[in-house]
Design brief:
Layout (H helix, E strand, L loop, with lengths): L1 H27 L11 H7 L4 H23 L5 H14 L4 H11 L6 H14 L5 H13 L3 H14 L4 H13 L3 H14 L3 H31 L7 H5 L15 E3 L5 E3 L13
Antiparallel strand pairs: 1-2
Amino acid sequence: MKRVLLGIFLLGIFVAASYTYPRVQVLHEPTLRLNRLPPSWILEIMSMGNRELLSTIIFYHTSFYYGEKTAWRKEEAELRRVYDTLEKATDLDPYNMDCYYLAQGTLSWIKPAIPKLNELLERGYTYRTWDWYLPFFLAANYYFQLDDPVRAAYYLQDASRLRPESSVFSSLTARMFYEGDQTETAIAFLKSMVLDTKSPLLRKKLLKRLRALETIRFLEKALRDYHDKTGHDPDSLDDLVRAGIIRSVPPDPYGGTFYLAEKDRICTTSKLAEGWRKDQP
């Protein structure tokens, strides 16, 4: 019985210590701060001609600060100050890719920060014109945070041009143009990619996506013809067949089934995805 009581007592001490120690630690440890930097022109003078070195020092100082903030202190990070330091670091060295990585990693999940983040990434892209990561970051921000698939598609188009051996960027570019109701633009882009690519495997994938989008364009035109003929929109693609606009609903090259979604959009159960199977949800 004494052992049981002793065990309960020790467990209580452990629980109390686990609860109170982190709070005591926060009270007695100095607060982390990321000091505001002077203007970029002063930093340039302070660098004494070593702009790249000072830019790197600022980057590491900022990344260490952010890591400490999020990993240990559980305080809200001073993200505006993080952006300010990274902006000045890239003023000193606009080729410093580490700064753009850190900015994307820390700010891309905060929607109000996206416009300023994109300005920083745009600056990097004007210098690092060979780097496909920057237009890819910009595309992700426009698509996921700003709900602008067409703008995202144009950046992905640049990423695809910089990394032509990858089929991912070209497929995503066409898909985003399509999601932004720019089917014709998506088709024109894929046709240019088919002509430019030297890879038989990539050409095969691009032609498959091209066939799917040309089918969607065909159905979009049929929708307009149906409206012109009847004065109203169809309830399903089968109405186009019954009205004699088309003979039948064409097949999806990816194995899915085309259907009429909200706002008269042509969609497919395959979602234009490779490897789709009918038994998938």
